[in-house]
Every structure is written in structure tokens, then in C-alpha cells.
Amino acid sequence: MNVRDPFGLHRKSALSILKTTASRAAVDLTERAVEASIHAIEKGKQAVDDFDMSFTVPKNVPSFSNPQRVVEDRVWGNTAVTSRGGKGSSHTNKSGGLLGGVQDRVGNLFDDRNTLPMYKDKPYAYPPSQRARPIWRRKRALAFILLLLSLLYYFGAFGNHHDTASSSTPLWAWLKAGSESGKIADWSKRRERVVEAFTLSWDAYERYAWGYDQFHPISKKGEQMAPKGMGWIIVDALDTMILMNLTSRVTHARQWISTTLTYDQDQDVNTFETTIRMLGGLLSAHYLSNEFPQLAPLAEDDPGAPGEDLYLEKAKDLADRIVAAFDSPSGVPYASVNIGKYEGLPAHDEGGASSTAETTTLQLEFKYLAKLTGEKYFWDKAEKVMQVVDNNGAEDGLVPIYINANDGTFRGHNIRLGSRGDSYYEYLIKQYLQTNKQEPVYLDMWDESLRGVRKHLVTYTEPSGFTIIGERPDGLKGPLSPKMDHLVCFMPGTIALAATGGLTEAEAKKLPTWTKKQEADMKLARELMQTCWGMYKWMATGLAAEITYFNIASPPLPESAPHNPPAEFDPDPEAEWRKDFTVHAQDTHNLQRPETVESLFYMWRITGDTKYREWGWEMFKSFMNHTAVQDGGGFTSLSNANKVPPVMRDNMESFWLAETLKYFYLLFSPDDLLPLDKIVINTEAHPLPRFDMGQLFSTGWKRKPRDADGKIIK
User: Fold this and answer.
1) For the chain, what is the mean pLDDT?
2) Nearest CA to 423 among 285, 556, 598?
3) pLDDT score recorded for residue 304
4) Model-level pTM greater than 0.90?
5) Is the pLDDT of residue 608 over 60?
6) Catalytic residue among 358, 365, 471, 546
């Protein structure tokens, strides 16, 4: 048997095993008693303050006699509190490894042996609060400790453990640089690290902000976006938990959705965000729970059970409210919708115009819902938008980032693949794939747009020759801005997906449909992927800025220009390649965005090149290193990711759970988990199935004839 030692700490003492093994011991008494304890702890934070513990227990409890448990007990045992910062506490902090200097922002989360938040299926011990405890609380805790000591003694937890000397080595030993040097990477263990990061994030939210739409992990509080909440975090993260097989957490989330979540609220919401996160999350949960019943299995989801269609019913209710946004004169949805009044609302700025990307990134969700329910009007409403947008006859398939809902015409000339433009292009190819390539109109639109990107937006940096996708803020006749939002980094993976249809590159090359065009597209995808990775390597924390600028020639080099960027990023601070990148002071924030790891996932699956996995692992370690919050807060976005320690933002984005950690998990997973030729993944990382349209559905429109520049022939 392989004995697992997740944090490289075989030699730890078991004297403090109390906190982290208590819940496991309690399980063997009765599960009902444990659940009662969970309920009591969640009812009030007093219990957390009293015991500094969480007792939510996974369904599958390992044996205490298992050798793996023995090792884990030794590890977890040393996370108990031995001091509270009084005279007897000593926190030596030496800067070193990957964690040097972060202590100013995250306390001694990684460097203090006694305060590391350990977590497996639940966090069994959190860092202590530094507040002084009233004596009555200490007595209460002492009584509880005596009871648990008896239980632990009964189960032999103090059998063959030995004390060892304290060490200043970071407890997360796997984060140490070179910890796997000379070894073959164990991707299953790396995937476990992602699950651990997710559970720490989720459990912090569950503890401090359960049911709230926003979570502030440093201040440890939540906020609502609607009077009764929208389930913004719970619903968005649901399918990630299903994929990770976190049954107890799915059970809790599902119970909340069943008993608490309501959309019958007088609340304005963003049409796009609510669709991709909430509607997409519910539809994905429905799909996964039915297609993969072995993942986080729940009796409530079984065929014939009263709650079998809970997720679908909630999705239908929400969609009936969102669809009111489409009731504009042109059919282009308004930017917002009041879900209680079933009323679409124009944007408060840009003359009431909607974002082009937002209006054209609703189709995967509404089409799948139409397929599930047979309600064709969902399909027709979503499809109409694509026709209106395309009838504008955008030159070379590149659309301005605003569109008027009243008349369906574009507003302004700003063209970019970053915010407000990005997912229009993403959903072109994904609509084609969603219906099993039965709607070639969307492939035509994708191909035209990619040609336009090459012609007008692609150029190369100086002096190194990296490939970038710039912006045309004043239209295609205006100058190229060498600016790339992090959001643009969805493109490498999307280009590769379009080139192979979700097959591996090796498989796709064997098909008669493989041409020089696909070959060139894969080359472009590889080059853009390298640039996006460089955006991470350039930053002090190894976490990319929200926006990066590049040094380019004047005039910009055409896409056909020769270029030969370095294969590796020299770590020397004065390395030549660093001259190609620039980050402005106002753009140094990192919001835990997923686009780069998303593309790494696609590139790994499609090319099989291990470097994409390794880049992802390095990126994941940077997130662990620089975004962790003290006192069991989970992880936060950063206000400044270009200094160490970074400046923290005190906000956990829902897409950290829904997208970023999900893509890390999939990147490190076997390829047969969600095969790319069987699914499409929406822009919020919610997987949906591909399907045949059948007799009820069809493409209800055709493109108008165009000239060589993509302009409509009148």
C-alpha cells in the first residue's frame, strides 16, 4: 500500500492530534450525532470560537487503522494550537522558498506550524483567532477536550507517535521549489491539491458567508446582490463540486437550492452574468447529475425521486424571467432584467446599448434548455440575436463591442477581443459544436472572424517576437493598440478547439478535412498560449495582471511577418524578453481569472504537450503562495499582484470556484473526464452536452451574401 503524505511531514508529533482527528473519531459514534453537531456549529459562530474547529464530516470515513490514516493523523495532529501569541509563542519567519515575504499579508498561514489550515474533505482545523477568550469559554472548551481525549484514547490515536523538534519549514511542503525535481509528476496528487484548495475556499465561504452572493475572505463576511440572495456562489460552484465528487458539500448546496433559493424577487440583474453563471450552473448540474450519477451521488437525484428535476425546474423558472430581456424592438436583449417583474431594462450608460458579447453569449444555455423542455421559444429568442448581429455586416467578421437593443445596430467602432467583445467569438464555434456540427452558419462566422483577427489584430512584439492580439478602439481604420486584457487568453484554447473539433491534434490530422488552415490555426494557438503564459511570468507573484501592454513596431508588423520568440522565459530580472511586456500601475490587479488555465486545459487535451500541464502547475502554486488568507479565509483576489507580498483585495470571485479551480482540476485529470468531443463548456466553465437538433429545432435564418471583406452585398 502506498502511504500518502500530502504535506511531506512524516515526522510530526501526535500530541496535538486532538483537533484534526476529533471529527473523524466522532463519526464512528453515530452519524446522526455528528450531523447534529454540524447543525449546531453552523447555527452560531460561538461554537467556532469555542473550539476553533469544523465538524462537517464526509460520508466515506476512512478506517483509523489504515496506514494512510496513521500518516495523515501525524500530519494533522501538529496543526493544533499551542499558543495564542502570548509570551510563550514564538513565530520565527524566514523568507525562503516560494513563500518568502508573504507573511505580511497572510500572517503565518504557511510558515507557522501551529496555524496551518489543513483540509481534506472538510477543513479539520483552522488557524486560531488571536482574540482573548473569556474564561467561561476556555472552561467549556476544556470540557470538550476531555471528552475528545477519551474518544481518541479509546481509538488508539496516541499509539506510536513521537514528538519532533519544531521547524520553520513551510507546512505546505509540496510548495517548496524543486520538491519534485528528478521525479515523474504525479498528476493525481496534483489534482488532489486542487481539491484541497477548493474545499478550503468553499468551507471558508460556508462558515462565514453561507447563502450570501459575495464573500470577503479577509473580513470574513458576506453580502447579498438581491434581498433574498441569488445563490451566486452556491449555484456557480455546484458542478465543480459534482466533478470533484464532494458529496457532503453538494448535499448542503442542493438543500439550500431546494429550500431557500427563490427568484421571485423585485431585483434587477445583469442578463448575461445571470445566464452564464446561474442558468448555466443549474443546467450543468442537471446534466452531470444525470449523465454521471456516480459523481457525488444523491438519492434525491435518482429517477423517480421527488427532487429528480430540481435543477432543471429552477433553471426553467429563472429562464422564464430572464427571457423578458429579449423583448426589445430588435430582439437584442437588454443589458438587465428585473426577475420579479419580468421586465427587460436598458443599460444605464452607453446610451442604453448592450454589450455585443453579452447579447451573444446566452445561446448555449437557452438552446440546451429548449432541448430539455421542448419550449421552442427559448431557442428562437436566442437564435434571433445572432441573425440581427450578423445582418449588420461587420467588416471581416469583427464586431464593435456595443449594440443598440432598440434597432439592433452597432454603437461606436471599438473592436477588441477583451471585455465586451470576447465571448461573441467563443460562442460562434461552440454553437457549431453544440448541435453536433449541424449548423454550419456558425462555423462560417467563426472562420470569417478568425481571418479578421489575423488581418487586423495580430502582430508581434519587440524585441522578442511574441504573438499578441491587439485592439482597434477607433475601428479597423484606426491605429492598433498593443493592449491585451487577460480575458483575451481564452483564444488559444478556443482556436485549438475549433481546429480539431475537440479531437486530439493527432486524431484530427488523420481526417480528410485537415488542411493547411488547421495547421496554421494550431500554430497561432501555440504562439498565443506562450504569450499568455508570459503575462504570468512577467509579474512578481507569477500571477498575471488584469491588462498587459506590449512593445510593438510602428507601424505594427503584419501577421505574415517572420518572428521567432524564445522558447523559454529566462528568469533573470534583466532578461531581454521582459522588454516586450509592460503593466501599468492601475492594471496590476489579479481577479483569480480562469482564461489562461482554461486555454492550458484545451491545449493539453488537444496537443498532449506536457508543458501546458507544467505551466498550469506552476500557476496553481503561485495562487496558493500569494492569495491564501489567514484564519481559514480561503483565497482572495489581489489589488496588486506585482509585488511580494501582494496587496490583497478581500474578495473571492465566484468564478474562482466555478472556473479557475475547475480548469486546474480538469487539467490534472485523465482525458476521459469530460471528453472534449462530447461536450461544450460555456463561458463560465459549466459543461453542457452536445446534442442533435431533432425535428423540433432548426437554424431559422441564413446569412446575407457578402463580398471578400465580409461586407453585405446590397
Assistant:
1) 82
2) 598
3) 84
4) no
5) yes
6) 546
Task: Check if the beta carbon of residue 65 is closer than 8 Å to that of residue 4.
Answer: no
Residue 495 C-alpha cell reads as 482556436
- Answer yes or no: is pLDDT of 527 > 60: yes
Q: Quote the strand ranges of 470-560, DSSP E.
A: 483-485, 547-550
Task: Report the alpha-carbon distance of residue 242 to residue 283 in Å, rounded.
Answer: 13
Instruction: Reply yes or no on whether 546 is catalytic.
Output: yes
Going by the DSSP 8-state scheme, the letter that residue 309 receives in this structure is T
Which class for 148: exposed (0-12), middle (13-18), buried (19 or more C-beta within 10 A)? buried
- Taking the C-alpha atoms of residue 359 and residue 146, their distance in angstroms, rounded to an integer, is 61
Q: Any idea which of 85-94, 407-416, 464-473, 636-645 has the lowest mean pLDDT?
A: 85-94
Q: DSSP assignment, residue 278?
A: I
Q: Hey, is 655 helix, strand or coil?
A: helix
DSSP letter, residue 660:
I
Which is nearest to 647 in space by CA: 209, 105, 36?
Answer: 105
Could you tell me which of 252, 253, 246, 275 has the C-alpha nearest to residue 263? 275
What is the amino acid identity at position 167? Answer: S
Task: List, as one string, the DSSP characters of 207-232.
Answer: HHHTT-SEEETTTTEEE-SSTT---H
Residue 594's pLDDT is: 98
- 56: nearest Cα among 142, 137, 124: 124
- Classify burial at 35, counting beta carbons within 10 Å of its beta carbon; exposed 0-12, middle 13-18, buried 19 or more: middle
Q: Taking Cα atoms as reference points, which of 220, 247, 172 lies closest to residue 9?
A: 172
CB atoms within 10 A of CB 222: 17
Where do we find the cell 490515536? 157
Amino acid at the residue 540: A
Q: How far is CA 84 from the centre of its chain?
A: 35
440 preceded by cis ω (within 30°)? no
Helix residue spans in 335-401 (DSSP H):
356-359, 363-373, 376-390
- C-alpha span between 342 and 29 (Å, rounded): 51
Query: How many of the other CB atoms lie within 10 Å of CB of 354?
Result: 29
